[in-house]
TrEMBL record:
The keyword Mitochondrion does not apply. Residues 1-20 form the signal peptide. InterPro entries: Bactericidal_perm-incr_a/b_dom, BPI_fold-BPI/LBP, Lipid-bd_serum_glycop_C, Lipid-bd_serum_glycop_N. Keywords: Signal. Pfam families: LBP_BPI_CETP (PF01273), LBP_BPI_CETP_C (PF02886). It comes from Ailuropoda melanoleuca (Giant panda). GO terms for molecular function: lipid binding. This is BPI fold containing family B member 2. SMART domains: BPI2. Belongs to the BPI/LBP/Plunc superfamily. BPI/LBP family. PANTHER family: BPI FOLD-CONTAINING FAMILY B MEMBER 2, BPI FOLD-CONTAINING FAMILY B MEMBER 4-RELATED. The keyword Signal applies.
Amino acid sequence: VAQAHSLGLLLALLLPVVSTSLPGTVVRLNEAVLSYVSEIGKAPLQQALQVTVPYFLDWNGEVYQPTRIQILDIHVPQFDLKFIADFGVRMLVAANFTFQVFRVPEPLELTLPVVLLADARVAQGSIRTPVVSISACFPLFSSAVVFEGSGSVAPGLLVPVQKHIEAVLRNKLCLSLSNLVQGLNVHLGTLIGLNPVGPESQIRYSMINAPNITKDYISLDIDAILLLLGKPIVLPVEATHFVLPAHVGADGTMVTVGLSQDLFDSALLLLQKAGALNLDITGLLKSENNLLNTSMLGQLIPEVARQFPEPMPVALKVRLGTTPVATLRTNNATIQLQPFVEVQAVASNSAFQSLFSFDVVVNLSLQLSMSKAKLQGTTSVLGDIQLTVASSNVGFIDTNQVRPLTDALFQKPLLDHLNALLGMGIALPNVVNLHYVNPKVFVCEGYVVISSGLLYQR
Ligand SMILES: *[C@@H]1O[C@H](CO)[C@@H](O)[C@H](O)[C@H]1NC(C)=O
Ligand SMILES: *[C@@H]1O[C@H](CO)[C@@H](O)[C@H](O)[C@H]1NC(C)=O
Ligand SMILES: *[C@@H]1O[C@H](CO)[C@@H](O)[C@H](O)[C@H]1NC(C)=O
Ligand SMILES: *[C@@H]1O[C@H](CO)[C@@H](O)[C@H](O)[C@H]1NC(C)=O
Ligand SMILES: *[C@@H]1O[C@H](CO)[C@@H](O)[C@H](O)[C@H]1NC(C)=O
């Protein structure tokens, strides 16, 4: 019994009741991304195909003469990519290789048209990033075309030279393509890098499962872990699996990113846990536009005037004990905050004396926008701020009487503070050197969609 008991205890310690990872993000790469990849991929592809060709042994009737062959130029007139459902991407590369064969007495120049067909599987790697691998690759060769200025070529030479070149390219081109794709994987691996969310807090994304691939897109289920001082925060509830509907956001964009309500709630939880939402508003004496002093308050609350015949500065301590709640409705995002505000007099020896406190409920409208790879927010107050006196050391307080004062004193600093914080933004899933361009943000029922182009830039 004792053993069973300690085993239970051990399990209870080992198994977290709730999780730290949040499956609340979907990144969908649409067809338009393929055209972009083929556009920016041509140059690196051309470079990768630049292989070395070993010497050709030319039989001159008596001896074999080693003849050097060099690629003068690779022209890629066609590079097509398309999605293959449940698999990955099929590519077709049409390339014209121009070779120089250094035979005596004069070099021979020839062009060999090659079509390279390859299938690239897109899967989930061991570090939970996307991994691309070449699973099938065939070069198809056409007849070499001899450059006109090359003079007459014995047909006895052209055929063996072409065979020699083809034998070399057959192996090397596919290997080059695999190497190119390996480089791409290094890039994709940076998906799991840490990105800041707020002060001392970060977010880390990774893939949850194998990508879903259709003939129109590749969709990645992404997990987020939110870290505070390097430690993952524990989420209060198990997040539900987020499914991004098929046709959302703008048509024809390269990438569609879906962020669930859970992700927003968790980011707010992180900011709250970090204490980043708390704020102190402190009045200074003898400053022109500062209403925060006991003589001012004393005009509204007689007991304050009685206790503080000499004017003293007043401080508002704004604390968020409860996590803000985000609500996402079609074209309408709001946040509800419930701060606890303590009003204190600051005595000459810097000791604080609590005057009274109140519970606040404030609804904020949230405008979302993207800057760099970050989703930023700006808030403004929706409707009235609700005040309820929680405690008082200065007798009865008429909330209607202090409302104008608190509205004026509290609202602007709170919004400034929140907007500075939300302006830091939450990074979307990203990889190094690939930037979101012309992103558009859509607020939908229970989630947010970002439709964006991509730009590769070192
Ligand atoms: C090079 O490629 C283009 C386009 O595929 C083709 O029309 C042309 O004939 C090729 N040139 C040679 C010399 O083979
Ligand atoms: C991928 O497919 C699975 C099973 O069909 C589904 O549960 C999941 O939501 C899909 N994910 C995405 C990102 O479409
Ligand atoms: C207290 O606040 C009022 C209103 O802003 C101001 O007129 C007055 O000068 C302040 N008193 C001191 C001592 O700062
Ligand atoms: C958003 O919803 C809130 C209530 O949830 C409402 O007060 C506000 O007017 C709405 N804003 C817009 C732009 O529809
Ligand atoms: C905030 O919004 C909620 C939901 O729309 C509403 O029930 C509540 O009355 C609002 N509170 C304030 C203080 O405006």
